[in-house]
Amino acid sequence: MATRDLVIGFDADDTLWHNENIFEKTHERYRALLAQYHDAATVDRTLFATEMRNLDLYGYGVKGFTLSAIETAIELTAGKIRADEIRHLIALGQEMLAHPVELLDGVVETLSGLARAHRLLVITKGDLRDQERKLAKSGLVGHFERVEILSEKDAATYATVFRRHAIDPARFLMVGNSLKSDILPVLELGGAGAHVPYHLTWAAERVERAPQVEGRFFRLKTLRELPDVVSSLAGQ
C-alpha cells in the first residue's frame, strides 16, 4: 500500500475533543433537580429508556437529550415539575451547546503530521448544526479533506461514505473512541480500526467484547500512538 493510498477517518466527539464529560456533569445536575422525587438510579434508568425510545425521532446530540430529559422529568414527577424547573432544563441544554471545545491531548500534533501524507476525513454522527459548530471552533477543519456528519454510523452508512469518496475499505483506517460506532462497522466492511478509548462511554455505545481481527484492529492509549499504526499499515 502506497503511503498516499491510506485514507484515515476520525470520529469527533471524545476522539478529537471532550464531549461525554459535559453530558456527565449535566446528568449530575439533573439528578439533583429530581432528587426530591426519585433516587439517582431511577432517574438514570428512566432517562436512558426515554432517550432510546426517542432516538429515531430526535437522533443523537444535545437537543434530543434535552427533550428526553424534559419528558422524563414530567413522567417522574407525575406532572408536578414546575415551569421554572423546565426552564432550568432548557438552560442546561443551552449551556451544553455553548460549551467551549476542548481538544484531547495530542490531537493537533497528530493531525498535522498525518495530513501531510494522507487523506483525512471527519466521520461523526449527531446534530448537524452542533457538530458543525464544534468543528469550526476546534480549529481543526484545515486538516481534513472532507467532513461527514451522519445520523447513524453503521456498516450501511460507512459503505455510502466509501462510495461517495471513492474509498477502498481495504485502504481505510477509522479512528474513534466507540467500538460500536467507529470500529466494528468498518471492520465488517474490510477496513481497519484504531480504538482510542475515552474514560467515559455512553451506555448506548458500549459493547461487551473487543473484536478479534488480526492485523486490522488496534487499541491505543492515546492518539499520539496513531502515527506508528499508520506507518505499519501504509507500509503493507
Jot down its keywords:
single chain; 236 residues; alpha/beta; Rossmann fold; DNA polymerase, domain 1; 6-stranded parallel β-sheet; 9 helices; 6 strands; 12% strand
Question: What do these coordinates show?
Answer:
The radius of gyration is 19 Å and the shape is elongated. Helix 1 packs antiparallel against helix 4 (83-97), helix 2 crosses helix 3 (62-76) and helix 3 runs antiparallel to helix 4 (83-97). The longest helix has 19 residues, at 40-58. The chain folds into 2 domains: 3-17 and 102-234, HAD superfamily/HAD-like (Rossmann fold); 20-97, Putative phosphatase, domain 2 (DNA polymerase, domain 1, Orthogonal Bundle), CATH 1.10.150.240. The termini are close together. The protein has helices at residues 20-34, 40-58, 62-76, 83-97, 107-115, 128-138, 155-164, 179-188, 226-234, and strands spanning 7-10, 119-125, 146-150, 172-176, 192-195, 217-219. It has 9 helices and 6 strands. Helix content is 48%, strand content 12%. Helix 6 (128-138) links the parallel strand 2 (119-125) and strand 3 (146-150). The protein has 236 residues and is α/β, with parallel strands linked by helices. A 6-stranded parallel sheet has the order 3-2-1-4-5-6, sandwiched between helices.
What is this structure, in a nutshell?
By secondary structure, the protein is an alpha/beta fold.
**What are the segments in which pLDDT stays under 50 over at least 5 consecutive residues?**
none
| CATH H-level superfamily title of the largest domain | HAD superfamily/HAD-like
CATH architecture of the largest domain: 3-Layer(aba) Sandwich
What is the overall number of helices? 9
In whole angstroms, the N-to-C terminal distance is: 5 Å
Oligomer: single chain
* Average pLDDT over all residues: 94
Q: What series of H and E elements makes up the topology?
A: EHHHHHEHEHEHEEH
Q: What's the CATH topology label of the largest domain? A: Rossmann fold
CATH C-level of the largest domain: Alpha Beta
Q: What structural category arises from helix and sheet content?
A: alpha/beta
**Shape from CA axes?**
elongated
Largest β sheet strand count, sense and barrel closure: 6 strands, parallel
Portion in beta strands: 5-15%
Strand sequence of the main sheet, in spatial order?
A: 3-2-1-4-5-6
Helix content: 40-55%
**Count of strand segments:** 6
Give the total of domains: 2
Query: Rg to the nearest angstrom?
Result: 19 Å
